[in-house]
What we know:
The chain has 13 helices and eleven strands.
Amino acid sequence: MTNDTNITNDKDINANISHDDHFNDSIVNEVILEDMKKNRIDHMKYLPDMEVLDSDIMDRVVAEMDAYDYDKYTAADVRAALSHEYRTLEDFKALLSPAAQPFIEEIAQAAQLETRKHFGNSVCMFTPLYISNYCENYCIYCGFNCHNKINRAKLNASEIEKEMAAIAKTGLQEILILTGESKKMSDVEYIGEACKIARKYFKVIGLEVYPMNSDEYAYLHECGADYVTVFQETYNSDKYETLHLAGHKRIFPYRVNAQERALKGGMRGVGFAALLGLDDFRKDALATGYHAYLLQKNIQEPRLHSHALVCALS
């Protein structure tokens, strides 16, 4: 980042918070937590500016996850799943179960065959570029959250171009543009300008930004974006509510349906992810894969990416 980067303290963006004196380096602050308890909004209720889809995918994913009893699967179920050329949802459940632990090597070999069937013996590489780290959410596990006392920065157009030109010189042809989740500080037009700059340097442009409405995704696609990735974090809405105390991210169904809105807006692909470790990792892994499966089944043309980040929580 160059010297003229716009840097400020998070108190500037959160001037309406009345307890600045209580900010410290700790993410979980008792005073802030007490304030959030009193002022929490319903995490299942859409805010006025949020697009509501006529979709049953979230309900189907959550129902399947809630009903998943991974302890009922046996070694025989795992062997049967590994023997199938086309694996079912039940096979997926067996492969995620504790009974699959002794079969890790066989599962890895089967995954390798499946990967090479679709992508060959190749590795796709990309570079992530944060253009802003402002955030309006209060996620208690995240260092970017709006109450954490860190320096905030936002690259201007010339700085974005300088960074992208340097990355392109390395030979990489795909870039992932990221922001913190602040629509005020990183509005759709700002992200769109970054996409237009990226199109001059890269063949594939991905976005990992805050969820938005389908018309906003359509605009970013017109600006050059190819795909969108959204981390659901956890598909357990009760656990989700305790971890995301404020901001647009608090609204669980709006986040779950982000990929569907992105495809509706014309994106070529969407990515799915859970932050494994926030809740039962087997159930979240099942929900992530089943979510991708349902969208791929309903919308055949776009290319879908599905991945998960394993997070070890101390």
